Fold:
Amino acid sequence: MTDQFKKEIDSALELINSYNNIYICSHIQPDGDSLGSIMALAMAIKKLKNKANINVIKVDDIPSVFDFLPNIDIIKEQDLSQEVELFIALDSSDKERLGIGAEFLCKAKAVINIDHHITNENFGDVNIVLPSSGSTCEIVYKLIKYMGIEMDKDIATCLYTGINTDTGRFMYSNTTYETHIIAAELIKTGIDTSDINISIYQNRTIERTRLLLESLNQLELYEDGKIGLVVVTQDMLEKTGAGMEDTEGIISFVMDINTIEAACLLKEVSNKEIKVSLRSKKYVNVSKIATKFGGGGHVRAAGFTIIGEQIDTAKEMILKEIFKNIR
Ligand code: AMP
Ligand code: MN
Ligand code: MN
Structure:
């Protein structure tokens, strides 16, 4: 732990100790890391300060795959008219990604920003931003340990889920020696990793499976197969009976192709709103590309949204940028 990191944690602890009305929040389009980190931190602070009023803000629909997480129902829509003293943002690179949460943030007396995105805008009064960390859950683990809060199975299940999903089941290049040490410590609490893994990965509905097949069937390859692109249109959702949240995971099938360096998934949220996911294998910095389009993320996984263009135009715009970065 570096001195700078300790200093930031001490400042965060001071804020947590001085305020009672605490709001915890993460990004829209929630994933395992955002959900795992907010729930783990909420449960941990409750152990530290039993009397504290801890509110976990629901900013978006939660994919049903995460229903197995213990105490998932603590994530609720919150009342903006209540007093907000301390606001803690997790796994969110900027305020806009917090959705309705940003309005609670604006009201807060103090803001703690905990994240691992390289594009984080350091919008907090205290910023615990570690881009070298594979997940926000790993940072929360360190925080809990530093605060001397005892780890329990519920907290460990949430943290393990976030670490597991954000590192692509401990496979992506953001997986470090420390990732495995932390995972081992979490497993030591007696959590059922087999159960967790079945819930997350062997739980695909038939509609989601059909969407996966439909989209991969229309895979486009460019630059000798170094670039792979798939789209999910509203028509495809209708045809398969799947929802937009069922696009999760499609891009990793494109990444698995041997020739691929960069993969792109375009989701037609509406006629003029295209959500884009980017991934790379070895050298393309997709965070740089996403930043050009007003988004952000990590070097090997990033995203953004294009508003006001139809899917074909959006595709041309993005491909042009990816071409510039392919060797
Ligand atoms: P996704 O492709 O949605 O799974 O996102 C990949 C990574 O990029 C995640 O770490 C996201 O947090 C990040 N990301 C996606 N969309 C945005 C955005 N509009 N702004 C900032 N970061 C994003
Ligand atoms: Mn996330
Ligand atoms: Mn994350």
About this structure: The chain has two domains: 3-200, 207-323. DSSP finds twelve helices and twelve strands in the chain. The longest strand covers residues 262-270.
